[in-house]
Amino acid sequence: MSLMAADVLAWDAGNWSVALEFWERHGALEGGPLECLEIGANRGGLSAWLASMGHNVICSDLRDCESRARPLIERAGILSRVRFQDIDATAIPYDNEFDVIVFKSVLGGVGHGGAIDRQRAAVASMHRALRPGGRLLFAENLTGSPLHRFFRRNFVKWGNGWRYVTIDEMRDFLRPFSQVRFDTSGVLGTFGRSEAQRQLLANVDRAALNAAFPPHWRYIMYGVATK
Questions:
Q1: Cβ-count burial 76-112 (b if 16+ within 10 Å, e if not)
Q2: What is the CATH number of the domain that holds 103?
Q3: Distances from the Cα of 164 to the Cαs of 3, 12, 105, 154, 205, in angstroms?
Q4: Torsion, Cα of 32, 69, 163, 223 (10° steps)
Q5: How many domains in the chain?
Q6: Which of 78, 123, 129, 208 lies in disulfide reach of 94, CB 3.0 to 4.6 Å?
Q7: Consecutive 10-residue averages of pLDDT for the chain (227 residues)
Q8: What span, in angstroms and rounded, lies between the C-alpha atoms of 126 and 136?
Q9: Quick check: is 62 in a domain?
């Protein structure tokens, strides 16, 4: 099975795939095999992506990780490179262990109900689990524009509990790292009702709207932080 962006990212792949492109350019993923950890894996798309490059991966989520992620890993034919483990992002049970840790759209759930301290603790736990020189590949939902915030409050069932982050908060969380490179993306893509609509809107975002709107009005922040 050849992995597609939709397999790796699951939702709004047209916009979130900019993170994959950025990580491939700046994540130093060549060579190896590298020792990797995915946090908040859900269906294991990022674990599959890393394992498909020949790296060894622990695919983790808070609970029931293997039952949710194993089907994609098996279909991709890379089960021998992946282990499954239930891990709380705020208390990763490893120190100086990994070359790469990756997550997508995790901190909002970690901070459910306004718990910014848990978000900060999760990033600190990832920093601790990386080896010196290790890289954190991150992609997270930003608070976005007033329109994004309005629609989340009124039309997204988890929108009032999920704690969306700001760019400044992410900078603060990442302060322990020696180097951070990041960018932002996404204006209209999230409003599509189907993946085909989201892809069409993502094309508009990339072609024009990302440049037309300020970074804090975009809804995705992605980057690489080096320990």
A1: bebeebbebeebbbbebebeebbbbbbbbbbbbbbbe
A2: 3.40.50.150
A3: 29, 17, 9, 15, 20
A4: 20
A5: 1
A6: 129
A7: 88 94 97 95 98 97 97 96 98 98 98 97 98 98 94 80 96 98 96 92 93 96 98
A8: 8
A9: yes
